[in-house]
Specification:
Layout: H1 11-20, E1 22-27, H2 31-45, E2 69-72, H3 79-85, H4 88-98, E3 102-113, E4 125-128, E5 142-148, E6 159-161, H5 181-186, E7 199-200, E8 207-212, E9 217-219, E10 228-237, H6 252-257, E11 272-275
Antiparallel strand pairs: 1-8, 2-3, 3-10, 3-11, 4-9, 5-8, 5-10, 6-7, 6-9
InterPro entries: Phytyl_CoA_dOase-like (IPR008775)
Keywords: Dioxygenase, Oxidoreductase
Protein name: Phytanoyl-CoA dioxygenase PhyH
């Protein structure tokens, strides 16, 4: 990474995040590291797990075809991906944006959106709020760092975020796998005076976008001939606790915690990226 002080958000950047629910960092990863990450991504897809441990159950395998690939907790399987998922600079940025003293890993998702220049498909990600799936966390004290391995724009299905939507609470919009995004949009029950105007996260390879767990986001098809590759590093503040009895009780992190209502999500399964001195 470049000089740390040039990578951290300014007070104006933090204010922007608080108002809009997202922020795009400068380039954090250089070309050499990106090449290593893409190589290790392919190793995971080939079933070559250098740690001897597979990602979470349900990870992508070649038998599933050339659709959107989503692999949870790839950091279990690969040390290069683990170094990114637990990167202290990403953790420090998240702590500043969230106003938190410490940041832990919630989980990671290795994402591969294949190219499809005939435009018939390409793996949309439907409009959703991450917290809809994470209600096992008592409060929405979570943020995602989305790391681009390739240049991304609307042509190859970059992420799109709806500004200020993190202030609207949980909505009736949430379906990661929905392909008809316009139908979703028409059926949204938005707050009065809310403006649904998605902003495309156009980024260079090595840049990282951050979005709040309540921010509405999604992405369209990859209509190019090249894949769109990324790692979503889902993070939480150090005071995030388990809330039992929600739709999130089936989430893998509840099993990894193995605790009781009110327990901190902490320990080996949730490594700490950053803590203020």
């Amino acid at each position: 990474m470049s000089d740390r002080n040039n990578l951290l958000p300014t007070e104006a950047d933090i204010a922007f995040f608080k108002q809009n629910g997202y922020w795009v960092a400068p380039q954090l990863l250089d070309e050499a590291r990106l090449e290593r990450l893409c190589e290790h991504m392919e190793r995971v897809y080939a079933g070559q797990f250098e740690t001897g441990r597979a990602p979470y159950n349900g990870y992508w395998t070649p038998e599933q075809g050339n659709g959107l690939r989503k692999t949870d907790n790839s950091h279990w399987a690969d040390l290069e991906l683990r170094a990114l998922a637990t990167d202290p600079v990403i953790g420090e940025i998240a702590s500043l944006l969230m106003g938190a003293d410490s940041i832990r890993l919630w989980h990671d998702q290795l994402l591969f959106k294949p190219g499809n220049p005939d435009r018939r498909s390409g793996g949309n990600v439907g409009w959703h709020q991450d917290y809809a799936y994470w209600q096992c966390a008592a409060e929405p004290t979570l943020v995602t760092a989305w790391v681009a391995f390739d240049d991304v724009n609307l042509d190859n299905g970059c992420m799109q975020v709806v500004p200020r939507s993190h202030q609207w609470g949980l909505l009736n919009v949430n379906d990661f796998f929905e392909q008809d995004m316009e139908k979703q949009r028409q059926g949204m029950d938005l707050p009065e005076d809310a403006s649904f105007e998605p902003v495309p996260m156009v980024m260079k390879a090595g840049q990282v976008s951050f979005h709040h767990a309540l921010a509405i986001h999604g992405s369209g098809p990859n209509t190019t001939s090249r894949p769109r590759r990324s790692l979503a590093v889902h993070l939480m503040t150090g005071d995030t606790r388990y809330k039992a009895g929600t739709r999130g009780d089936g989430h893998m992190n509840v099993g990894l915690l193995g605790g009781a209502d009110g327990d901190l999500f902490a320990g080996e399964a949730f490594p700490e990226l950053f803590r203020k001195n």
